[in-house]
């Protein structure tokens, strides 16, 4: 059988199929358009596999593709089935946004409160999704993450560190689920970021010699916020624990903070001093407390 030549492929105008041998065909349509086709068998089933259009794919390139296809067949692979599976896998890979939402949902038990739960996804919505939210998670590179971190890395260091940590959680999820291959890019991302110059500043502490005067000042006006602050000082508790305290947690001179409201997820029992109990008595008598919580009316106050 005579093989095709470059000159003949270019000159052919008559519609039909022209063989180059070994299953490679040049298909000429009535419109004059030409394309390459390889015909063979996989597991007893005839396969017609397109190899591209001419002249985008030259005769030499078509022969190379036909040879690679025959090699697949000899290895027991079905090129058509392989392409179908590849398409299905590609369709199953979630975008970064979809992956982040899945991670957020799967970590339901990790949140200490609704505020932390919403903050986790809100930071990604604000700083990450506009850049890579719609990109398949396996296509997110270290360069992509580095670029989105740069505007906030020095300007908002604490926020930036949290965003980077959360991006890492989502990418780790992608690798765990098999959506991504190779090594996770987080190590190279951190190496490529400069040292942060701006450090978060903590609130100034009050010298202990001034605490008595502060307590007297707070007692001048008995609002829920002031009572809560006095109670926090007397129990050395976190502000969130105090704001969330309920009457049924307090009994027999003890305040039992349940595990789900503690940072370490362990129940915490606080013996209440006479001064702490006095604060609770004021809350009861003055009507500053609700039926369920000693300090609920001003529960939004940041102590």
What is this structure, in a nutshell?
The chain has 13 helices and seven strands. With 303 residues, the chain is an alpha+beta fold.
Structural summary, described in words:
The protein has 303 residues and is α+β, with helices and mostly antiparallel strands. It folds into three domains: 6-91, Double Stranded RNA Binding Domain (2-Layer Sandwich); 96-192, DNA polymerase, domain 1 (Orthogonal Bundle); 208-298, hpI Integrase, Chain A, CATH 1.10.443. Helices cover 47% and strands 13% of the residues. The protein has 13 helices and seven strands. The chain has helices spanning 6-11, 59-74, 79-92, 96-106, 114-127, 129-132, 142-153, 157-176, 186-192, 211-218, 224-235, 239-243, 274-285; strands at residues 16-21, 24-28, 34-42, 45-54, 250-251, 254-257, 268-271. The strands form two sheets. A four-stranded antiparallel beta sheet has the order 1-2-3-4, with helices on one face. Helix 4 packs antiparallel against helix 5. The chain is elongated and about 105 Å long. 21% of the residues are buried. Mean pLDDT is 83; it is low at 298-303.
């Amino acid at each position: 059988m005579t093989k095709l030549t470059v000159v003949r492929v270019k000159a052919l105008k008559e519609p039909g199929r022209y063989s180059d041998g070994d299953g490679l065909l040049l298909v000429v349509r009535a419109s004059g358009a030409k394309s390459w086709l390889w015909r063979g068998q996989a597991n007893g089933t005839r396969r017609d596999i397109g190899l591209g259009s001419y002249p985008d794919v030259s005769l030499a390139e078509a022969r190379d593709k036909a040879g690679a296809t025959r090699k697949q067949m000899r290895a027991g692979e079905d090129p058509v089935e392989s392409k179908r599976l590849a398409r299905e896998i590609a369709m199953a890979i979630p975008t970064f946004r979809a992956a982040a939402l899945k991670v957020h949902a799967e970590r339901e038990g990790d949140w200490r409160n609704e505020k932390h739960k919403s903050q986790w996804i809100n930071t990604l919505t604000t700083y990450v999704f506009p850049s890579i939210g719609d990109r398949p998670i396996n296509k997110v590179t270290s360069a992509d993450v580095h670029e989105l971190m740069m505007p906030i890395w020095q300007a908002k260091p604490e926020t930036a560190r949290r965003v980077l940590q959360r991006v890492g959680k989502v990418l780790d999820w992608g690798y765990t689920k098999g959506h991504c291959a190779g090594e996770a890019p987080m190590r190279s991302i951190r190496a490529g970021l400069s040292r942060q110059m701006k450090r978060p500043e903590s609130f100034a502490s009050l010298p202990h010699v001034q605490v008595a005067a502060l307590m007297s000042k707070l007692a001048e006006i008995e609002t829920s916020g002031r009572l809560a602050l006095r109670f926090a000082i007397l129990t050395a508790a976190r502000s969130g624990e105090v704001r969330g305290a309920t009457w049924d947690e307090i009994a027999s001179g003890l305040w039992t903070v349940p595990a789900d409201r503690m940072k370490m997820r362990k129940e915490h029992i606080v013996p209440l001093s006479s001064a702490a109990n006095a604060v609770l008595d004021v809350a009861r008598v003055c009507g500053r407390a609700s039926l369920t919580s000693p300090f609920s009316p001003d529960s939004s106050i940041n102590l």
